[in-house]
Design brief:
alpha+beta; 144 residues; single chain; seven-stranded mixed β-sheet; 7 strands; Nucleoside Triphosphate Pyrophosphohydrolase
């Protein structure tokens, strides 16, 4: 049993026409404040190691299996972030734009996937679209 919450997240980027975008999921969490907000894919670790936990979470959140397959084959290295009350393991992955149409959000986990241009993240007014933890994570990764 872990003494602190541990989370594995995927920082998926896509470059389209020279502009970098983040692939985010619009959270399905009925009755919670974060319902409808954008977040990085991934989630809380159970007793699994971070990499295996990320693969499990991606298999739960993306129905085609492509994201989990890409992560498994490329084996990105995690960046460990200490956030208030939790340890985040963030894995970076560049996705080919041609693969975007193959991604299928799991309807019980997500209201859909969205591409957000990284320059939109510079606007604090946009941050209300993001979960609080996503704002904290992106700030630590110097995206905000």
């Amino acid at each position: 049993m872990r003494s602190r919450i541990e989370v594995a997240k995927l920082l998926a980027t896509v470059t389209i026409e020279g502009r970098q975008h983040l692939l985010l999921s619009r959270k399905r969490a009925h009755g919670e404040q974060k319902h409808g907000q954008l977040e990085l894919l991934g989630g809380r670790l159970d007793d699994d190691p971070p990499f295996e936990g990320l693969l499990r979470e991606l298999e739960e959140e993306e129905d085609s299996g492509l994201l989990a397959e890409l992560v498994a084959s490329r084996r990105p290295t995690a960046e460990r972030l200490e956030l208030p009350g939790a340890v985040y393991h963030v894995y970076r992955l560049e996705i080919d734009p041609d693969d975007l149409g193959l991604l299928v959000p799991h309807e019980s986990e997500s209201l859909g996937f969205e591409l957000v241009p990284t320059e939109a993240l510079a606007d604090p007014g946009f941050w209300v679209e993001l979960t609080e933890r996503t704002v904290q994570t992106l700030a630590r990764l110097e995206f905000l």
